[in-house]
Amino acid sequence: MMRMTWLITAINRRMMKLLVALALIAYIACDFLSLKNRSIQEQGELRIEQKIDEVCLVNWCFVLLIPSMSQKYPPVKFLSERDRKRILITGGAGFVGSHLTDKLMMDGHEVTVVDNFFTGRKRNVEHWIGHENFELINHDVVEPLYIEVDQIYHLASPASPPNYMYNPIKTLKTNTIGTLNMLGLAKRVGARLLLASTSEVYGDPEVHPQNEDYWGHVNPIGPRACYDEGKRVAETMCYAYMNHTRYDIVLQILQEYSEPICKYCKHNQILHFSCFTIKYVDLVNGLVSLMNGNISSPVNLGNPEEHTILEFAQLIKSLVVSRSQIQFLPEAQDDPQRRRPDIRKAKMLLGWEPVVPLEEGLNKTIQYFRRELEFQANNQYIPKPKAARMKKGRPRHN
Ligand SMILES: O=c1ccn([C@@H]2O[C@H](COP(=O)(O)OP(=O)(O)O[C@H]3OC[C@@H](O)[C@H](O)[C@H]3O)[C@@H](O)[C@H]2O)c(=O)[nH]1
């Protein structure tokens, strides 16, 4: 019986489609041969019926065969029903989210990506579209979502300064209403939720390095506040839900580990590369062990290795083989002077620490953003401003 079950599950859906399509072709061929042995009148009537059948069958073959032949997915582990989880990733089309999607899909889970494609791209997850374990939903987390899941990785949020400052009210809504919606969903279906926070909750820190108990030093009315405070409120919401509902809820802090020198270093693409100092391979592994562990409090995941922004800019410049000049601009308001995660908690409780060497991590990050830039019509990563929707003569923030 066990062997039989194994055999059935081993014949995957694509193979089944191929077999059904071959059976249909064989059926048409048999029908054609039997027609040859009928009288001329019978043949005329039958031919009409047969033509109708053939058109339907050929259509079916197309439906079955074309996706089967053309789609090739990365290899996916087989997980038994008991071990296979239904996982929601909000912001799953973004940089971290799409790599997390790849890991969880390849591990054999059922993954639903929810994204409003503000900075994420469909092409980041397009290699999974059509896979039976994968679902992509164009949805804004500010609106409630009703699905059945076992785990929620809540990543949806603009993450870099130009993106979160682009529409500060929307950034606040995404991190507050969006997080409430996801917590509501987690509570309804009894799912475990992991919130991707940010090192920006520490603001411009007064202690160094920062451990998870540090309350932070954030300007609530500065240009970065929509993101910093938005994520801080999101953490508070998780904490409140956890205490009121006793659902497992995990917070996670994404750390950028950079020590800006006295000048703010900004230079077109280099600025964006230098924002992504986390090595995503390490980060994705950390997120998954955090979700599957039993910690229900904030954990710093980041690299405690410190570099100045200038060192990063020079390294990235050499990796992208760029001739662009590094410019020194006046420091932006509320820019943190120094940040470094204390990752002792992650090491002790998760056995996690970053292992990917800096250059390797940066190279992969550069590849991602190179692709991103290729797809931007005018080679700009920052989204173009769109006119605010007008309501009764006043601009409306969506
Ligand atoms: O309102 C929004 C805003 C953004 N998003 C999505 O959220 C994703 C964010 O991904 P990005 O590539 O911009 O950024 P990252 O992957 O680096 O962000 C990640 O690390 C930093 C955390 O603060 C973020 O929450 C986490 O997603 C994108 O796919 C974006 O489209 C939404 O789905 N809804």
From TrEMBL:
<keyword id="KW-0210">Decarboxylase</keyword>
<dbReference type="InterPro" id="IPR016040">
    <property type="entry name" value="NAD(P)-bd_dom"/>
</dbReference>
<dbReference type="Pfam" id="PF11803">
    <property type="entry name" value="UXS1_N"/>
</dbReference>
<keyword id="KW-0812">Transmembrane</keyword>
<keyword id="KW-0333">Golgi apparatus</keyword>
<dbReference type="Pfam" id="PF16363">
    <property type="entry name" value="GDP_Man_Dehyd"/>
</dbReference>
<keyword id="KW-0520">NAD</keyword>
<dbReference type="InterPro" id="IPR036291">
    <property type="entry name" value="NAD(P)-bd_dom_sf"/>
</dbReference>
<dbReference type="GO" id="GO:0032580">
    <property type="term" value="C:Golgi cisterna membrane"/>
</dbReference>
<feature type="domain" description="UDP-glucuronate decarboxylase N-terminal">
    <location>
        <begin position="3"/>
        <end position="56"/>
    </location>
</feature>
<dbReference type="GO" id="GO:0042732">
    <property type="term" value="P:D-xylose metabolic process"/>
</dbReference>
<keyword id="KW-0735">Signal-anchor</keyword>
<keyword id="KW-1133">Transmembrane helix</keyword>
<comment type="pathway">
    <text>Nucleotide-sugar biosynthesis; UDP-alpha-D-xylose biosynthesis; UDP-alpha-D-xylose from UDP-alpha-D-glucuronate: step 1/1.</text>
</comment>
<dbReference type="InterPro" id="IPR044516">
    <property type="entry name" value="UXS-like"/>
</dbReference>
<dbReference type="InterPro" id="IPR021761">
    <property type="entry name" value="UXS1_N"/>
</dbReference>
<protein>
    <recommendedName>
        <fullName>UDP-glucuronic acid decarboxylase 1</fullName>
        <ecNumber>4.1.1.35</ecNumber>
    </recommendedName>
</protein>
<keyword id="KW-0325">Glycoprotein</keyword>
<feature type="domain" description="NAD(P)-binding">
    <location>
        <begin position="88"/>
        <end position="256"/>
    </location>
</feature>
<dbReference type="GO" id="GO:0048040">
    <property type="term" value="F:UDP-glucuronate decarboxylase activity"/>
</dbReference>
<keyword id="KW-0456">Lyase</keyword>
<comment type="similarity">
    <text>Belongs to the NAD(P)-dependent epimerase/dehydratase family. UDP-glucuronic acid decarboxylase subfamily.</text>
</comment>
<keyword id="KW-0472">Membrane</keyword>
<dbReference type="GO" id="GO:0070403">
    <property type="term" value="F:NAD+ binding"/>
</dbReference>
